Amino acid sequence: MQALGPVNALYPMPTTLVGTVINHKINFLAVAHVGILNHGEPQYLSIGLSKAHYSNQGIITNKSFSICLPNRQIMAQTDYCGIVTGKNTDKSKVFDSFFGEVPGAPMISECPVNMELKLHEVLDFNTHDIFIGELVQTYADPSVLTNGKIDMAKLDPLLFDMASKKYWAIGQAVGDCWREGKVLKR
Ligand SMILES: Cc1cc2nc3c(=O)[nH]c(=O)nc-3n(C[C@H](O)[C@H](O)[C@H](O)COP(=O)(O)O)c2cc1C
């Protein structure tokens, strides 16, 4: 094994679009550093945003945000939201947006899956704000559902890899979780 130093090797991560409202204007930015903090209800999710970003103030003011899942059809628009800042560029018209139950959490009609969250806590890191949100509602386009559940093959999520700086697609399912290991059980 070769030591690489403290290289974060936890990729790929899903590419998401986080929605906020700042000064009455909708803004989206691309976010790949997302986390699942628990499994159950309430469900808590995290996003790590550089303090340099415009979006942070919208989340802090409205105490809410959205996490939207783009697919490869809207890769260019997604990437654009990760290149330009709402500080000097109006990103409110990049997508057709809609609101659900949580004011301040705009979502995206073109994204097959959208989640709206209430801000639960902010972890104040040196360079980043870690926003922990409580998931309030999830919206999915019926075209990505199989038996009422989100189907990875239909969703076609955009995966983000820092080392190659590329978007990746998922392959096929290769095994059953909580089942494959049973062959090693006595
Ligand atoms: C694919 C992709 C993923 C990104 N992930 C993150 C992230 O997890 N955290 C972060 O702080 N910035 C991330 N960025 C950078 C922001 O999206 C980018 O700086 C954006 O312009 C900030 O927008 P805002 O200033 O309007 O908030 C990412 C950019 C791209 C292209």
Quick overview of this protein structure:
The chain is mainly beta and 186 residues long. It is 10% helix and 38% strand.
Number of helices: 3
Strand residue content: 35-45%
The number of strands is 14
CATH topology: Pnp Oxidase, Chain A
Q: Which strand order spans the largest sheet, edge to edge or round the barrel?
A: 3-2-6-9-10-5-4
Top-tier CATH class? Mainly Beta
Bound molecules: flavin mononucleotide
- Mass-distribution shape: globular
| Class computed from helices, strands and strand pairing | mainly beta
Number of domains: 1
Give the second-level CATH assignment, the architecture: Roll
The helix/strand order is EEEEEHEHEEEEEEHEE
The value of Rg in angstroms is 17 Å
